[in-house]
């Protein structure tokens, strides 16, 4: 394909910008990953190096020596998985319903939905509602309150509107019911947007910790993020701590290693999951954002 001079210049500029963006994103990730295996003193004094004498697994050993890590990891999987299932199911059903041309009061319903994107009841009323529903100190307090996202519903509705009506009309002529059309035709064509919503929901809930701080009292129910936070606080050197200089230096060294190791552990599931969702992610975002 022959490009004009201006096109070649534009392509070069785009490649340079994309390379810079990739480096801006990649370098911090590599820094954190390598720093989690290096001795803090060696990292500060020598920088990155391949000398095995400067490498250590003390940070990971310290984290996994705490049995609460595994329990927090399982809790986070349950919370993020349950939240994703509820959020995707509600968003797909609501989005498909709102995409139908013959729905009475569709604009009014959308107005009510859109209002909730800008105004909410606040923390205290939400806490009182969760308490009165008997969900305090249960997993449902983490999964249900924020499971319905208006933004997800809008993305799903936009995607469903892009599906040709001829497919549904042909199915109706063949005698298919509305439920069968949705189950056999619409859902198979909606894999991109479903995977996109699932990825957004899982990442959002996986990184969340504030609701757990508010609604959970039993530490056995804590998600991974709160468990790692507790470990970091326990190993953090406070300004008023009493002890000799060597003891404080050792605690500071362990604290630095734990910080980097915690970031790697918390990010690992997302890094593993994203490549499997990438092809659906690209298509779903583009189609769901148009029109």
TrEMBL record:
GO cellular component, one term: plasma membrane
Membrane-topology descriptor: Multi-pass membrane protein
Transmembrane segments: 12-38, 77-98, 110-128, 140-160, 181-203, 257-277
Keyword terms: Cell membrane, Membrane, Transmembrane, Transmembrane helix, Transport
One protein family per Pfam: BPD_transp_1
Any one GO BP annotation for this protein: transmembrane transport
Domain ABC transmembrane type-1: start-end pairs: 73-281
Similarity comment text for this entry: Belongs to the binding-protein-dependent transport system permease family.
Protein name, as recorded: Sugar ABC transporter permease
Gene source species: Jeotgalibacillus proteolyticus
């Amino acid at each position: 394909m022959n490009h004009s001079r201006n096109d070649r210049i534009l392509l070069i500029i785009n490649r340079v910008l994309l390379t810079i963006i990739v480096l801006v994103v990649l370098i911090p990730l590599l820094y954190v990953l390598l720093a989690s295996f290096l001795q803090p003193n060696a990292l500060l004094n020598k920088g990155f190096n391949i000398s095995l004498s400067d490498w250590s697994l003390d940070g990971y050993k310290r984290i996994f020596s705490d049995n609460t890590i595994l329990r927090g990891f399982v809790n986070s999987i349950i919370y993020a998985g349950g939240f994703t299932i509820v959020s995707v199911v509600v968003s797909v059903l609501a989005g498909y319903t709102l995409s139908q041309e013959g729905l009475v009061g569709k604009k009014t319903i959308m107005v009510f939905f859109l209002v909730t994107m800008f105004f909410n009841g606040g923390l205290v009323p939400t806490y009182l509602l969760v308490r009165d529903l008997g969900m305090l100190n249960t997993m449902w307090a983490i999964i249900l309150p924020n499971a319905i996202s208006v933004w997800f519903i809008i993305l799903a509705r936009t995607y469903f509107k892009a599906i040709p009506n001829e497919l549904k009309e042909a199915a109706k002529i063949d005698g298919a019911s509305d439920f069968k059309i949705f189950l056999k035709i619409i859902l198979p064509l909606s894999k991109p947007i479903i995977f996109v919503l699932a990825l957004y929901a899982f990442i959002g809930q996986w990184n969340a910790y504030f609701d757990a701080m508010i609604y959970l009292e039993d530490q056995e129910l804590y998600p991974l993020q709160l468990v790692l936070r507790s470990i970091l606080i326990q190993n953090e050197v406070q300004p008023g701590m009493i002890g000799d200089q060597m003891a404080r230096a050792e605690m500071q060294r362990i604290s630095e290693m734990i910080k980097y190791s915690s970031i790697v552990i918390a990010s690992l599931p997302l890094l593993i999951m994203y490549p499997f969702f990438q092809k659906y992610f690209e298509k779903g975002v583009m189609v769901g954002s148009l029109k």
